[in-house]
């Protein structure tokens, strides 16, 4: 009878060991999944995308300022020129959407690429809010009017969003 009790006890211990092992493996698997989510590549690319958007907005503004400066300096009477451009808002990205139509409803989901990021359909550059031009000839009404018309034509801005001033000494 003792050997039967001993074998039952040994079997019970093996079941407890298996249960403990299964619990430990389950917890380890959950921790691995958690760590893989915390340190995944899409999170890093999302952070990089945010900083690159700020960089591209700054680069866009600086490019506009440089091009306007070079062009205005070519106008007769403008002289040395400094241009400042202000932008209304940041870059806007429109993502591709997949629409599935049913009998009673439509379901829209973003189209995802293999790396988990959304497919960009269109990107709109920031809108120009205003332009300030400071140049040697800014005090001459005729030069200021020509500069204002040039900037209006290039950026489709109203005249009240463009300021042309005389550069000091």
Short summary:
The protein has 169 residues and is of the alpha+beta class. 50% of the residues lie in helices and 23% in strands.
Give an overview of the whole structure.
Among the domains are: 57-91 and 126-169, GMP Synthetase, Chain A, domain 3 (2-Layer Sandwich); 92-122, no CATH class. It has helices at 2-38, 41-73, 141-155, and strands at residues 81-87, 92-95, 97-101, 106-110, 120-124, 128-135, 162-166. Residues 42-48 have low confidence and may be disordered. Helices cover 50% and strands 23% of the residues. The strands form three sheets. It has a three-stranded mixed β-sheet with strand order 1-6-7, with helices on one face. The chain has a two-stranded antiparallel sheet with strand order 2-5. It is built from three helices and seven strands, in the order ααββββββαβ. This is Stage III sporulation protein AG.
Element layout with pairings:
Layout: H1 2-38, H2 41-73, E1 81-87, E2 92-95, E3 97-101, E4 106-110, E5 120-124, E6 128-135, H3 141-155, E7 162-166
Parallel strand pairs: 6-7
Antiparallel strand pairs: 1-6, 2-5, 3-4
CATH topology of the domain at 57-91 and 126-169: GMP Synthetase, Chain A, domain 3
What's the level 1 CATH class of the domain at 57-91 and 126-169? Alpha Beta
Q: What's the order of the H and E elements? A: HHEEEEEEHE
At CATH's second level, what is the architecture of the domain at 57-91 and 126-169? 2-Layer Sandwich
Strand order of the largest sheet: 1-6-7
Radius of gyration in whole Å, from Cα? 33 Å
Class inferred from helices and paired strands = alpha+beta
What is the strand tally?
7
Mean pLDDT: 80
Number of helices: 3
Low-confidence stretches: 42-48
């Amino acid at each position: 009878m003792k050997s039967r009790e001993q074998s039952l006890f040994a079997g019970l211990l093996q079941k407890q060991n298996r249960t403990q092992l299964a619990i430990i493996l389950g917890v380890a698997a959950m921790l691995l999944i958690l760590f893989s989510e915390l340190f995944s590549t899409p999170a890093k690319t999302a952070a990089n995308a945010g900083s690159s958007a700020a960089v591209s907005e700054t680069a866009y503004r600086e490019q506009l300022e440089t091009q306007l400066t070079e062009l205005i300096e070519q106008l007769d009477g403008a002289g040395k020129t400094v241009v400042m451009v202000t932008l209304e808002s940041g870059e806007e990205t429109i993502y591709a959407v997949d629409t599935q139509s049913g009998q009673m409803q439509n379901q829209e989901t973003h189209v995802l690429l293999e790396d988990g990021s959304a497919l960009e359909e269109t990107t709109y550059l920031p809108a120009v809010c205003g332009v300030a031009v400071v140049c040697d000839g800014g005090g001459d009404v005729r030069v200021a009017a020509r500069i204002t018309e040039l900037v209006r034509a290039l950026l489709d801005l109203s005249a009240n969003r463009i300021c042309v001033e005389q550069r000091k000494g």
